[in-house]
Amino acid sequence: MPLDDDKGFLNRADEFMQVFKKGAEFTQELLRENERLRFRILEMENVNNAVPANINNQGENLRLLQRIAELESEKADIVERIRQVEEENKDFANRYVEIESENNNLANLYIASYQLHSTLDFPEVLQIIIEIVINLIGAENFAIMLLDEKTRMLEAVASEGIDREMVPKVSMGGGVIGEVAKTGENYFVPDLDSYEMDMNSPMVCIPLKIKEQCIGVLVIYKLLMQKKSFADVDFELFTLLAGHAATAIFSSRLYSDSERKLNTIQGFLDLLTK
Q: Is the pTM of this model over 0.70?
C-alpha cells in the first residue's frame, strides 16, 4: 500500500477536523444568538405586561405584538438552523470515525505487506502469514497449502489450531480447495453461522497467486469467538495475501533452494580441493 495514499488519508482527516471545528463554533454562535433572542422576547413580554389594561395606546400595543411575533419567527428559524447544524455535526462525526477506521486499516495493510517482504527465510515467512491471519483477519483454525509441481497435489505446509496431518492432500481441480487453486477465485461459504467444519470444504479458501499462476491456497475452517463476520478490511487482506504472501513464499522457497544447491556445490568443491 503506497505511503502517499496514507498521507492523503491523513490530510483528509485533518481537513475534516477543521470543518468539524468550524461547525462546532457555528453551533455555539447560534446558541448564543438564540439565548439573546429569548431574553429579548421576555423583555418585550414584560414591557407588554407593564402597560396598564385601560391605556388607549392601541397602536403601541399592536407594534409590540408584531415585534414579538417577528422575534418568535426568528427564534423558530434559529432553532431549525441549530437542528440542521447538529445533524451535520453528527454526519461529520460519523465520517470522521469512518476515516479513522480506514486509516487504521491502511496502516495494518502496510505493516502486513512490509512484514511479508522483510525476510527470505521460508519458515519465517510462513509464521508471518500465520500471525497476519490470526491477528488481522481473526481466524482460529486454518492452514497454508502449497502446490507440489511434480505431483500437482496441494499439501499443507503450515497450520494453526489443527494438526497439519488432518488437512487432506488435494489435486488441482478436486473439490472446493482444488477448484479454487485451479480457477484462482476466492471462495466463501454463503452462511458463516450455519457452517460446520469440514476439512475438504473450508469456510474460506483463498488462492495464493503470482500473476495468474496459483502456487497454493489459504484454507480457513474456524474464526475466533469474537469474530462474527468479515469486514471490508478482511477482503482487502485476502487480496493482499493472494498476491504478496504468494510472492513472499515463492521468493523464500527459491532462495532456500538456491542456498541448498550452493551448499551442495560448495561441499563438492571442498571435497575436490582436499
A: no
